[in-house]
Amino acid sequence: MTVFAADYAGASVRPSPNHGERAGGRKPDMIILHYTGMGTADGALSWLCREESQVSSHYFVHEDGRVVQLVPEERRAWHAGKSSWAGETDINSCSIGIEIANPGHPGGLPDFPDKQIEAVAELCRDCGARWNIPPERVLGHSDVAPIRKVDPGENFPWEKLHAGEVGHWIDPTPISGGRFFQLGESGQPIEALQSMLSLYGYNIEITGIFCERTKGVVEAFQRHFRPQLVDGIADFSTIDTLHRLLKALPKYS
Ligand SMILES: [Zn+2]
Question: Which domain of life is it from (predicted)?
């Protein structure tokens, strides 16, 4: 396997054979964050470097903050699978994938150490500056593959990343009472909710019916932006947080 020079000065290199050409010569304009979801970091890293796994990422961040590069940034790594964001369905061709060592949901959602999150933030700032990636296009795997994927999970500290000038974040509207929408309901407010989720980038059809897919997308949104309660119910806090995030996007302000 060809050894290559790290694109990020802070990374050591351990090449994975699992990569290809970015379709149409695309350049990365998104960063997708994952957790490994495995018991040990070394086990996860070995898996990403084995041909039989058919998966990889550009970067791997250990719990202690060490960064390893597996695939050159100009190549297409295989981390997102069947995914979609803002109409784009070949997420691997337009993203940089970062695997963050953490046992995830199977391991009871342990915290991400500060050193690790600082390392992820620095890596994202570096990639973001070199590829000119907008903050709102630093996303979780669950954002681009709702229902199918739940990483990096509701315990991932997006707020800390944002304090390190990475990603899009506003403090979620506090959970309170009031009108809410859930599975099985239909009508104009559901249509409005679906429209807002779609405008933000989520892959959702605007049908006016609160179906399983809608519930899954609401959960994905909550996991990232209103992590206190991930229940797939569009309560006032969820809808208001989404509305405020949309208003904070440069293209709509
Ligand atoms: Zn993932």
Answer: Bacteria
